[in-house]
Design a protein that fits this description.
This protein is α/β, with parallel strands linked by helices. It contains nine helices and 18 strands. The protein binds aspartic acid (ASP).
Length: 351
């Protein structure tokens, strides 16, 4: 039976279509929400470069075995490279996915998305979705023009994960190349290799093998925050040898409500950056300190001008393990609430 119902609403100049590919009452229903990315890109013959080219239905049509795993519905949310994603688009994506998850017959959702910003986009939804059903982000590192695209196996595995009773209460995950990562922990670690997403010290949540989820870990820290009507401007600025803090001052003067500073080592900056951070704090701009170092927690051990301990004493918040891109989204959702400074600080102190 083929049911085609079109719900079209203009969203970012793309249309919203909702197609049921096939229906088997014995199988669960999984909704694929397509947003774009390499999984849906093909080589433009004029330029030889990858551009958005494949709809959600076409992604599914190329993988007939999906019909043995689940009934598939497709929603074409957008078709953009994820380098073009914004928190505002993720806010609309979160509301769209939440509405889909509220449908009793829906087992869960797979979101196809570019890998460039997948780690933070998945975290935004992990923080804002209200329905506790499986949501799996997946994508590809090799585009749909390649005979070796990793898109089809990744899509099969993502749908398999949604349907697997072993894969519950993980919140939003990022699943590529058989590995399952939590949205909070995952990082893109390799610019071109299909095994790019890693969870490093915290470990993968699981692994998909021969159509089954091997569960290895649980998710320990999850929060649900509402999406404000306006997302505050939060900038990310980096310390580096010789940085003079001028960009921090400019960010404050340009209306930033929060600034995430990428420090060196255990979240340290130089004295001029420290002066600029104190300027930001004096203007009631919330400052969160992260680090460029991939692994490890920061705890504020250094007491020189710009050391982590001095920064914290001056009123900056140390982000224990969340790195800048995710710390920015968490702060973006926390600032509009009426949570106190110490409550906000607590969110960043979780390991
Ligand atoms: N530039 C692409 C994107 O983020 C990379 C990918 O999807 O692998 O959309």
């Amino acid at each position: 039976m083929k049911r085609l119902s079109i719900i079209s609403a203009l969203m970012f100049n793309v249309y919203f279509t909702h197609t049921l590919i096939a229906e088997n009452p014995k199988l669960p229903t999984v909704v694929i929400v397509a947003t774009g990315g390499t999984i849906a890109e093909k080589i433009d013959p004029k330029t030889g470069a990858a551009i958005p080219a494949v709809t959600g239905e076409e992604l599914v049509a190329n993988i007939p075995e999906l019909n043995k795993i689940a009934n598939i519905e497709v929603v074409n949310f957008s078709n953009i490279d994820s380098s073009q994603m914004t928190p505002e688009i993720w806010a609309k994506l979160s509301k769209t996915v939440d509405d889909i998850l509220k449908k009793p017959y829906v087992k869960g959702v797979v979101i196809t998305h570019g890998t460039d910003t997948m780690s933070e986009g998945s975290y935004f939804l992990d923080l804002t979705l209200t329905v506790n059903k499986p949501v799996v982000f997946t994508g590809a590192m090799r585009n749909a023009s390649s005979p070796y695209s990793d898109g089809p196996p990744n899509l099969i595995n993502a749908i398999t994960q949604v349907c697997d009773p072993n894969a519950t209460n993980w919140g939003v995950t990022v699943t590529l190349n058989q590995y399952i990562n939590s949205a909070r922990r995952v990082s893109k670690m390799q610019a071109t290799n299909p095994q790019t997403f890693q969870s490093e010290e915290s470990g993968y949540l699981g692994y998909i093998l021969k159509g089954k989820v091997l569960r290895m870990n649980d998710v320990l820290y999850r929060h649900t925050l509402s999406i404000p009507s306006v997302l505050p401007k939060i900038d990310i600025l980096s310390d580096y040898a010789g940085s003079d803090g001028s960009l921090i001052r400019a960010s404050v003067d340009n209306g930033a409500k929060g600034i995430v500073v990428i420090g060196v080592g255990e979240g340290n900056v130089n004295a001029l950056m420290f002066d600029a951070i104190k300027y930001a704090l004096s203007k009631n701009v919330t400052v969160v300190i992260s680090t460029r170092v991939h692994n490890g927690a920061i705890a504020g051990e250094y007491g020189d001008a710009g050391g982590g301990s001095t920064l914290e004493a001056a009123g900056a918040i140390l982000s224990t393990t969340l790195r800048a891109a995710k710390a920015r989204l968490l702060l973006m959702l926390l600032l509009p609430t009426n949570k106190s400074f110490s409550e906000i600080k607590q969110y960043f102190s979780e390991p």
